[in-house]
């Protein structure tokens, strides 16, 4: 499954209604964003049990501000409706794969106790 466009209208429901959601905050003028896009799309195609969302920060400035995105690309991961990863900068494919594995294996009962 390829990534889906997220915006103010569907962001909260997507996060709350899916077990794992990765969100890429990007802009068309951003070189690193354009370099990361094919890596992100390939991961989306390879991991159909995870929702991969993309937020165009130019079109969704209020959403990006609410998410405290200060630099792009920024990748966030949500599990069980909770933010479990937030990092600016484009990840290489192997690092994205490692992140996906870590989020899958994350024991949310331990996260919620912390």
From TrEMBL:
<protein>
    <recommendedName>
        <fullName>Thioredoxin</fullName>
    </recommendedName>
</protein>
<feature type="site" description="Contributes to redox potential value">
    <location>
        <position position="32"/>
    </location>
</feature>
<dbReference type="InterPro" id="IPR036249">
    <property type="entry name" value="Thioredoxin-like_sf"/>
</dbReference>
<dbReference type="GO" id="GO:0005829">
    <property type="term" value="C:cytosol"/>
</dbReference>
<keyword id="KW-1015">Disulfide bond</keyword>
<feature type="active site" description="Nucleophile">
    <location>
        <position position="33"/>
    </location>
</feature>
<dbReference type="GO" id="GO:0015035">
    <property type="term" value="F:protein-disulfide reductase activity"/>
</dbReference>
<dbReference type="InterPro" id="IPR005746">
    <property type="entry name" value="Thioredoxin"/>
</dbReference>
<feature type="active site" description="Nucleophile">
    <location>
        <position position="30"/>
    </location>
</feature>
<comment type="similarity">
    <text>Belongs to the thioredoxin family.</text>
</comment>
<feature type="disulfide bond" description="Redox-active">
    <location>
        <begin position="30"/>
        <end position="33"/>
    </location>
</feature>
<keyword id="KW-0676">Redox-active center</keyword>
<keyword id="KW-0249">Electron transport</keyword>
<feature type="site" description="Contributes to redox potential value">
    <location>
        <position position="31"/>
    </location>
</feature>
<keyword id="KW-0813">Transport</keyword>
<dbReference type="InterPro" id="IPR017937">
    <property type="entry name" value="Thioredoxin_CS"/>
</dbReference>
<feature type="site" description="Deprotonates C-terminal active site Cys">
    <location>
        <position position="24"/>
    </location>
</feature>
<dbReference type="InterPro" id="IPR013766">
    <property type="entry name" value="Thioredoxin_domain"/>
</dbReference>
<feature type="domain" description="Thioredoxin">
    <location>
        <begin position="1"/>
        <end position="105"/>
    </location>
</feature>
<dbReference type="Pfam" id="PF00085">
    <property type="entry name" value="Thioredoxin"/>
</dbReference>
<keyword id="KW-0560">Oxidoreductase</keyword>
């Amino acid at each position: 499954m390829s990534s889906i466009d997220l915006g103010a209208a569907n962001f909260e429901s997507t996060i709350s209604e899916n077990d794992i959601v990765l969100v890429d905050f990007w802009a068309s003028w951003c070189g690193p964003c354009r370099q990361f896009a094919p890596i992100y799309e390939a991961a989306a195609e390879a991991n159909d049990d995870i929702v991969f969302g993309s937020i165009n920060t130019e079109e969704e400035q209020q959403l990006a501000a609410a998410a405290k995105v200060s630099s792009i690309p920024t990748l966030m991961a949500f599990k069980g409706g909770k933010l479990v990863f937030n990092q600016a900068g484009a990840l290489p494919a192997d690092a994205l794969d490692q992140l996906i594995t870590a989020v899958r294996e994350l024991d949310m009962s331990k996260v919620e106790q912390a």
